[in-house]
């Protein structure tokens, strides 16, 4: 059986083949939100969230196209701990290389206010 979030991802992959890089994130706790759609019913952008178990930390990913992506890590008080903007491959490489929140090299210093997720991500 195909889940609704897989159908949304399939539609996005048809529109943006470069999103195949997203498949690296499968199995690592990412959940995909239903994407906003344009007038033709095509996805406008993708929003993904990774909730870390036993942690107040959340990672979020917004992909508009293969040259416009953003990833953030935030705490439960809305503090921005880490952010990367750029092309999809560079942002996903940064996300894959980001240590888990409990790792000693994980970002912990609040560097700003996190955007509302996913609305302003």
Give an overview in words:
By secondary structure, the chain is an alpha+beta fold. The chain has one domain (4-113). 18% of the residues lie in helices and 28% in strands. The protein has two helices and six strands. The protein has helices spanning 4-15, 88-97; strands at residues 30-32, 46-51, 58-65, 68-74, 79-86, 112-113. A six-stranded antiparallel beta sheet has the order 1-2-3-4-5-6.
Structural descriptors:
121 residues; alpha+beta; 18% helix; globular
Read across the widest sheet, the strand sequence of neighbours is 1-2-3-4-5-6
Percentage of residues in DSSP E strands:
25-35%
Number of strand elements: 6
Number of helices: 2
How do you describe this structure in short?
With 121 residues, the protein is an alpha+beta fold. It is built from two helices and six strands, in the order αβββββαβ.
SSE arrangement:
Layout: H1 4-15, E1 30-32, E2 46-51, E3 58-65, E4 68-74, E5 79-86, H2 88-97, E6 112-113
Antiparallel strand pairs: 1-2, 2-3, 3-4, 4-5, 5-6
């Amino acid at each position: 059986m195909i889940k609704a979030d897989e159908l949304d991802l399939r539609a996005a992959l048809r529109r943006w083949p470069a999103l195949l890089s997203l498949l690296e994130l499968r199995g690592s706790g990412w959940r995909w939100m239903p994407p906003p759609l344009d007038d033709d019913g095509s996805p406008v952008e993708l929003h993904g969230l990774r909730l870390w178990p036993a942690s107040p930390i959340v990672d979020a990913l917004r992909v508009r196209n293969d040259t416009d992506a953003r990833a953030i890590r935030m705490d439960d008080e809305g503090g921005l701990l880490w952010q990367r903007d750029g092309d999809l491959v560079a942002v996903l490489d940064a996300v894959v290389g980001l240590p888990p929140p409990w790792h000693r090299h994980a970002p912990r210093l609040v560097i700003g206010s996190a955007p509302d997720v996913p609305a302003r991500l």
